[in-house]
Amino acid sequence: MTAREEILGRVRAAIGRQPSNDIARDYRATTQDGLTEFLNRLAHYDARVIQTTEAELEATVATTLAERSARDIIAPAGVPGGWLTTVNQIKDTPPLGNDALDAADGVVTTCALAIAQTGTIVLDGGPGMGRRALTLLPDYHLCVVRTEQIVPSVPEALARLKPTSPLTFISGPSATVDIEMVRVKGVHGPRTLDVILVAAHE
């Protein structure tokens, strides 16, 4: 027996003694109502939630933007035109420069899905979401989430998302903590996040 064969034999023997690779998947379960858990997480992150219905959605968007005194709003391709009839819609075609993004009052988007367990909203660059910079540079973000888009946990979310998409995970307004544990908002994204939660059709 050669040295190589002896080493490989030892490796095979060691691998053969390893325990089963079966992994428990109990973490997929959630013990709370998904909607309640999602709302609680958003409140913890200081994000404002406005609940509405499909019939009242356009009026709710208009009211929410007016309350924020937001007039110049970036509208990614795919955002319904009826949502922004009371404001100046800024299109991203051709792509806006960083100065223009920073100067806007905010951005309105849809989302790919939301995660109850972490209070996270996920954008994937699809219709109504646009490229990542659109939600990172403006100081205000209004996102429309439908209750049927809420999944219980992170594994369920990852199973539904396309890994090659430009995924952005948003858990509340942008914030960080300095060395003295003072929370600072707006470091790497919007300081203000509003979520309009649209009830599922009955």
Per DSSP, the total helix count is: 5
Please name the fourth-level CATH homologous superfamily.
Answer: NagB/RpiA/CoA transferase-like
Q: Unreliable segments (pLDDT under 50, ≥5 consecutive)?
A: none
Taken as a percent bin, the fraction of beta residues is 15-25%
Q: What characteristic shape results from the CA principal axes?
A: elongated
What Rg is obtained from the alpha carbons, in whole angstroms?
22 Å
Count of DSSP strands: 12
Quickly give the CATH architecture: 3-Layer(aba) Sandwich
Biggest sheet character: 6 strands, parallel
Give me the secondary-structure topology.
Blueprint: H1 3-16, H2 34-44, E1 48-52, H3 57-67, E2 72-74, E3 88-90, H4 98-103, E4 106-109, E5 113-115, E6 120-123, E7 140-146, E8 150-151, H5 154-160, E9 168-170, E10 175-177, E11 183-185, E12 192-198
Parallel strand pairs: 1-12, 2-3, 2-4, 4-7, 5-8, 7-12
Antiparallel strand pairs: 5-6, 6-9, 10-11
Structure write-up:
This protein has 202 residues and is α/β, with parallel strands linked by helices. It has one domain: NagB/RpiA/CoA transferase-like (Rossmann fold). It is built from five helices and twelve strands. It has helices at 3-16, 34-44, 57-67, 98-103, 154-160, and strands at residues 48-52, 72-74, 88-90, 106-109, 113-115, 120-123, 140-146, 150-151, 168-170, 175-177, 183-185, 192-198. The strands form three sheets. A six-stranded parallel beta sheet has the order 1-12-7-4-2-3, with helices on both faces. The chain has a four-stranded mixed beta sheet with strand order 8-5-6-9. A two-stranded antiparallel sheet has the order 10-11. The longest helix has 14 residues, at 3-16. The radius of gyration is 22 Å and the shape is elongated.
